[in-house]
Design goal:
CATH superfamily: Shew3726-like
Structural class: alpha+beta
Number of domains: 1
Shape: globular
CATH class: Alpha Beta
CATH topology: Double Stranded RNA Binding Domain
Order of helices and strands: EEEEHHE
Mean pLDDT: 93
Low-confidence stretches: none
Number of strands: 5
Distance between the termini: 25 Å
Radius of gyration: 12 Å
Length: 87
């Protein structure tokens, strides 16, 4: 099966300074974290939760495409998306 993202929810991870979201491969949940650097240059360690979530929403299509590509190269259930994954 292909990785799908039926749930638009995402959450701010204050400890890791990134945004978490999930995808599904059949019945298997696949967790992702997008690091701050991958969300764009406008964010800083002092940015608000809303700023992180807005940055995620603005780049959602690119993030989901990158998550699918990364997942296809290395199947697993927990991934961290870094800035270099978007190149």
């Amino acid at each position: 099966m292909a990785l799908i993202f039926p749930n638009r929810s995402r959450s701010f991870d204050e400890a890791r300074k990134g945004v978490r979201f999930t995808g599904y491969d059949g019945m298997f949940e696949v967790r992702f974290l997008v690091e701050e650097a991958a969300l764009g240059g406008a964010l800083t360690r002092n940015s608000s939760e809303a700023a992180y979530l807005n940055a995620f929403d603005a780049a959602r299509a690119s993030i989901l495409e990158t998550a699918s590509r990364v997942y296809q190269h290395r199947r697993g259930n927990n991934f961290t998306l870094k800035a270099e994954d978007f190149r």
